[in-house]
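input
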Amino acid sequence: MTATKQNNNHESQTKLIAGCRNPFNSIKVFVVCHGLLQLSQLLLSGYLKSSISTIEKRFGISSQTSGILASFNEIGNTVLIVFVSYFGSRVHRPRFIGCGALIVCTAGFIMCLPHFIMGQYEYDKSVASVYSNATDICQPTLISQSESNSQCVTRMGKENKDVLSILFLGQILLGIGGVPIQPFGISYIDDFASKKNSPLYIGILFAVTVMGPGVAFILGSAMLRYYVDIDKIPASEIVLSPNDPRWIGAWWLGFIVSACIVAVTSIPYFFFPREMPKEQAANEKADEIEPSLIDAFKNKPDSNESVSLAKFIKVFPKVLFRTLKNPVYILLVLAQANLSAMVCGLATFMAKFLERQFSITASLANLMIGSVNIPGAMAGIVIGGVIMKRFHLSPKQCGAMCVFGMLSCILVAFPLIFLGCSTQRFASPSSDQHLSVGAWYNVSECSRQCACSKTAFNPVCGSDGVEYISPCYAGCEGVNFNYKENKVLNYTRCSCIASQGSGDSAIPGSCGTSCYSLFMPFMVLSFLAGALASTSQTPAVMLILRSVNPADKSLAIGIQFMLLRLLAWLPGPVMFGSMIDSTCIRWGKKCGTKASCQYYDNNLLRQRYIGLQILFEIGALIFFIAVYFVLHHKEKVKIEAEKNPETDTLNEKVEIVKILPSRTKEVF
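output
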């Protein structure tokens, strides 16, 4: 019997060691593959955010609606995250991750469908070229041939309903597919990586996955340089430029590219084993490796355990209560919820914010976010992981590191409230609300005889420095062409501009803002703030993993992500979108209904947008401070426990024994 046992053990050890030679039995290979998958998954989900302002203009939706769209993928994710996390240690996690990635891929292809089922993008022609009709200059005798308002409303309502339904469906599938990817990946790494290397691996994993949104914004920058209908019309007939306010980039093309990348990165997950040998730290002795490999499997839950849904529902409240009453866990999750809400505002609307504040193109805004803000966050996460590994931080020191990172972030981010541009002076027949800064001019009287379209939006910059929403509303009756380049040089005989006491001409395009010099200082401070805030990410994650019962780890991660979705990722984009809409001073019109915003109060937009982010950062700081004090108290209790009174009494008795007769010693 003993010989048989030894032979079986020897065979098991031989198989385990042989299995280690398989590249898919290496946790390092899994970390690399998982980093690539999460990068590509976040490339797909982040691409929507990089093109959100373009989608708003293309389909005439508000920032609040686009915020709902951006957060809609969290609905499917939130519903399933806890169930999937609970069964995480009882299923083949790598295969579940691979299947989830394929669902994400499908969602990406669905998201691009509106472009193919909709017609060509229609914009206000407004003498865009030599060959177009001069319908947007001042023509008193012009009679509109447009369709009736009722027909227009019916057609637009059907189009918007179809588009939004498809986009929302894609977002739901994107959320469902992403359910197993991060929780299963983190728990799989933490189970099979050595305790020494686990923080570094998870830190690297988070850093690499942060690159996903970064690459998404860079991809968005590249795709938005192409015209939206580049597949439908010849390049020679595209007369708009990326600097034109009416320009719409090829927002749909990035979804196809990123979906293909997700499909490729999902393949390796179907080759990873359900369980792999436990990684050993470099300083462990070689003769300890084989027993440790076997122990790695012995400590796993019974793979044949059958868990019914009824049993799960019965057990879940107990585990949930046990997890939520853990003060360190719940405080850390609340701190991360504040940080996640801040990140939602940055990721979803930062590009739009930069476009409006500094009058830059959507392509440049995405490029700056992808090459400055995202690398800053990635650097902060890596630095946090390296510091933890290098200095072997105690839990209290991890809490102190989180506090220091957030406090530094707030101090650096506060000046951003004052770095920006005021709204450019513009003229239109009406505005939705009056500006206290006096940037709006009413041109209803001077353009009364021009029969201008009520939905016109073709901004021109007058010689008086005022931006007019169209040549017609500037009262321009003439136009000069460059026949060689097929473009408008300027508009002339502009009665509204002459009434301002200046010249009477205007050039195509927006006047823009006059504080572009503040753009680079803004990006530098934004980079530093993001890097400092991100240093708290790895310590916070490791504190969560180490603060819960090992048996509850998988479910605790699921509860964490569920709470983050409910408290931050679901309401965050909607909150920021509603806030941005509240600063709009002129809404576009389409078929008599409100479309996307044309002009914002830039000062109010900057104060509310940056201010809301700082508010969330302060919330995170408060919770991190509470975590520090809880950990400090636990450490103090632990030290006092080591000085147990019973131990002290025993020591005193030992000292007494030394001086008593031998007979008394026998009593003790």
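quick obs: The beta strands are 426-428, 440-442, 460-462, 467-468, 476-482, 487-494, 506-508, 584-590, 593-600.
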